[in-house]
Amino acid sequence: MTEWTAPDWTPPEFPYVEEALSADAVVVVERGRWIVYLDVVLASGAVRRKVGDYPKQSQAEQAGRIIERNARRFIRR
């Protein structure tokens, strides 16, 4: 009897991860809360994702700066 070995691992083909071309954080007020959105431009279009909500504008703006800076770190120049 032969010993079983796992097949070689290959990354999945789906979901396809598309590289971002740019990223911007936007802070808006909605129903008394400060919301941080991340706007990302891809080759296939743009997407907006809600990434946090805060009780104070200063907290939201600080979080937005951190989120935007970290998102931009992974964009190829």
Ranges where pLDDT stays below 50 over 5 or more residues in a row are: none
- Integer average pLDDT: 90
Radius of gyration, taken over Cα atoms and rounded to an integer in Å? 19 Å
* Order of the strands making up the biggest sheet: 1-2-3
Instruction: Enumerate how many helices there are, as a single number.
Output: 1
Helix-residue proportion: 10-25%
Global morphology? elongated
The H/E string reads EEEH
The biggest sheet, with number of strands, parallel, antiparallel or mixed sense and barrel status, is: 3 strands, antiparallel
Task: State the end-to-end CA separation.
Answer: 54 Å
Count the E strands. Answer: 3
Give the helix/strand class: alpha+beta
Assess the beta-strand content as a share of residues. 35-45%
Question: How does this structure look, described?
Answer:
The structure is a single chain. The protein has a domain at 21-73. It contains one helix and three strands. Helix content is 22%, strand content 40%. The chain is elongated, with a radius of gyration of 19 Å. It has 77 residues and is an alpha+beta fold.
